[in-house]
Amino acid sequence: MEKQDQWASKLGFILATAGSAIGLGAIWKFPYVAGTGGGGAFLLLFLIFTFLLGYPLLVGEFTIGRHAQSDAIRTYKKLAPHTWWHVTGRIGVLVSFLVLSFYSVVGGWILLYLIQALSGNLSGFSQAEYGTLFSDIIANPAQTIIAQFAFILLTILVVAKGIQQGIEKVSKIMMPILFILFILLVVRSLMLPGAGEGVRFLFVPDFSKLTSQTILYALGQAFFTLTLGVSVMVTYSSYLPKTQNIPKSALSITLLNTFITLLAGLAIFPGAFTFNIQPTAGPPLIFVVLPAVFENVPFGSVVFIAFLLLLLFAALTSAFSMIEIIVATVIKDQDQKRAKMTWLIGIAIFIVGIPSCLSYGVLADFKMFDKTIFDLVDFITSNVLMPIGALLISLFISIKVKRSTLMAELQEGSNIKQGFFNVWFFLLRFVTPIAIILVLLDSLGVFNRFK
Fold it and tell me: Which residues are the signal sequence here (predicted)?
């Protein structure tokens, strides 16, 4: 058995892991849920929950991942042999496979829009016409399937190269560009006439808008914006050397992700208020509303191309982590198998994703439980399996793994004190599971029965 590949540098690990967390959800979902939750009040809750609940779980995943130095499934087998806890890793692998199957569809849409924008065919339309254009693009079976495959192909080519030469190397290029593009977009957005109103909406809490639903949305966003609950972070941390400071690395990633989330709000809300667009527009915001917004600002087409590149990079860095957890599980440290298995897994994901790709075209009328195939796969993974996975991981770390093992692993590369450990362990064992259960029950609509 070959020695497991490792991250070449602390920066590479942080950028790759932050890239995993900074996906399309952070960029388009946060403005949507913040818009429905009242802006500033939602943001405040999101920040509190991210650092009080998300950060402890991230530290926990890093701790068991580095300790076991193995893939998602064998990590649980090593730490709890002859038990059923390995199911936790299996859920993570399944979720990553299913999520990437429909996530690649959206990645394909971004590629199609980028091609349209670069060729100059994405300008001069009204918002209604942009809506028609989007509907036409996603309903075209041939071009959406080709675009979906192109997105998967980009993912395969990077992950097949390995941790250092593939994921880390590309993340070191993509992530800085992503940050630069985002900052340029925010600067341009803040120059718009309605920027002040958008900034106030985002940063000034209006607690009269707070509802139990808003609180649960903020809880869910805090957990899943860090890619928690699918053992992706367990897999990524398995490539960490013992010299890495886990609490500091987790904090850096949490801060980076929070920073990007804030930038997403600052990039979108000023434009929304300037052009009288509801901040609750949701997913169509990216493909229908924003092109119309950029149409009305100087050099708008260039700015929109930059935004699409940013989206593409964010989507790809998340896709790398999703396919990596599957590849790592299959090759079992035998890196000579990496390239072949990455191709096989990538093609399998592409094939499984085709029905989701056709959900807005030839399969638009085919529905199960009143949902299209795309929406059903999204609901099962995001609303059911991910919360269950996060709950199992938090319980596994705090109940099954010895406290002495956790403390010893956390102290490798750091000088944490007993006080930090006690607070972290208390949050992980008692507070985080309750919060996850509430999110899961809300996702399943349990609380709707009491309204």
Answer: none
Type of residue at 237:
S
Asked whether the beta carbons of 175 and 317 are under 8 A apart, the reply is yes
Task: State which H helix or E strand residue 327 sits in.
Answer: helix 300-331
Amino acid in position 378? D
Which tokens in the block code for residue 440? 């899961």
Q: Are 321 and 69 in contact (CB under 8 A)?
A: no
In whole angstroms, what is the distance from residue 144 CA to residue 141 CA? 5
CA 290, 291, 297, 299 torsion: positive or negative?
positive
Predicted confidence (pLDDT) per residue in 252-267, tens digit: 999 988 888 888 888 8
Domain ranges of the chain: 10-450
Q: What is the C-alpha separation between 306 and 118, in angstroms, rounded? A: 10
For the range 427-434, what are the long-range contacts, defined as Cβ-Cβ under 8 Å and sequence gap of 24 or more?
Answer: 427/52, 427/53, 427/56, 428/56, 428/57, 428/60, 428/394, 428/397, 428/398, 429/394, 429/398, 429/399, 431/52, 431/53, 432/53, 432/56, 432/57, 432/394, 433/391, 433/394, 433/395, 433/398
pLDDT in tens, 151-174: 999 999 999 988 778 888 888 888
Beta pairing partners, 371: 368
Q: In Å, how far are 20, 157, 342 from 338, measured between CA atoms?
A: 20, 11, 6
Residue 368, φ and ψ in degrees, nearest 5: -125, 130
Cβ proximity of 377 and 366 under 8 Å: no
CA 4 – CA 335 distance, rounded (Å):
8
Predicted TM-score of the model (pTM):
0.90
Quick: pLDDT tens for 278-317: 666 555 667 776 777 777 677 778 888 888 888 888 889 8
Per residue in 333-389, pLDDT (tens digit) is 787 889 999 999 999 999 999 999 999 888 888 888 888 999 899 889 888 888 899
Rounded Cα distance between 139 and 358, Å, is 7
> How high does pLDDT run on average in the chain?
86
Burial class (CB in 10 A: 0-12, 13-18, 19+), 76: buried
Any idea which fold 10-450 has?
Hydantoin permease (1.10.4160)
Give residue 450's pLDDT: 59
The SS3 of residue 371 is strand
